[in-house]
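Table S2 (continued). Query chain:
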Amino acid sequence: MIEFRIDRRSGVATYQQLVDQVEHALRLGLLHPGDRLPTAKEVVAATAINPNTVLKAYRELERNGLVEAKRGLGTFVARSLAMPRDAVEGPLRDEIADWVRRAGQAGLAREDVAALMKAALDENF
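Corresponding output:
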């Protein structure tokens, strides 16, 4: 099951952080169709956010066709966004991990690495 982490200083809306984390877990194959997401009550207990924020995130995920709410049972993953296994565990991931490690050793902060990655993504996609 996914454990949500909220960064209150990120400037990203809390509901969007939840949506992003579910999508991230789907892309990495950490969540699969049929998996149940934590209930709003469970998320509230773990993160101290408003229950309406959780419900807004889950509605957004449902609108995007990624989850399905089943009355009285919970919210379940409806489809996967998983990448091919080679991308998750193969040489490309190893190269990225090595680059990130070297960037950290060179003194770059996490935010600096993220900015460089975003710039490279924007230039190439």
